[in-house]
Every structure is written in C-alpha cells, then in structure tokens.
Amino acid sequence: MEVDCPPEESISSAFDEDSVELGDVKDMRLEADAIVNDVLFAVTEMHVSQSLTSASDVAYINVETREGNRYCLELTEAGLRVVGYAFDEVNEELNTQYHETVYSLLDTLSLGYREAFGNALLQRLEKLKQNGQ
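Structure tokens predicted for GSKIP domain-containing protein (133 residues):
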C-alpha cells in the first residue's frame, strides 16, 4: 500500500494547533448568536446571557416568548433545552427534553412563536409567487 506522506511524518502535523484543539466541535457562543439572530423576529426578547459563563461547549440563551414567559436555554452539542424559568437561571434539578433545533423548542413553548413563524413563511411564499418563481 502506498502512503502519500513519509511514515515518520506525524498525521497531526497536517493540522494547525487551533484546528486540533477545536476539531469539529462548534463554538457554542457563536452558534448561540446565530440562533438569536435567526428567531428574534418571532419572540418578544432573546439574547445570549451575559451573566452565565459560556464556553466553546456550552452557551446560555435568555428568551421571552410572545406570551410573556421567560426561559433560560442551554445550548450544547446535544441540542437546546430549558434549564430555568427566568433569565439567567439554571436549575440543575430540571430534567427537560433536548431539542435538535431552536424551532422545535420554541414550537413547544410558544403558540405566539408558532403563529409568527407561520406568518413569516406565508409572507415569503407570497413574495416568491409575486416574483413569478
């Protein structure tokens, strides 16, 4: 079997130090910012927590639904889940379900979110129809 690099060359030398440390792991702080920007139109308030410590493997997002309910969400590789029923609150005793997407989580928490999301989707479809696409 032929090898493209000399056997004495370490495989890890092909990567710089940053990519080795981070690998394929997403930076949850950046992911949290993207989530907030994506669904802010459909909630009353949403922001990444400044009080709770975020890291590359976990971030916390505060959200207030259109119904006025406040939640603290935890974002990890496992997904999103409710960890508190107030901003910047983490209740270790809560054993809530993980959701793969923010859409799924908010859909279970807020009828107002569901309506806003549906209306936005209808507006986009109507715009596409008007543009003849």
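The radius of gyration is 20 Å.
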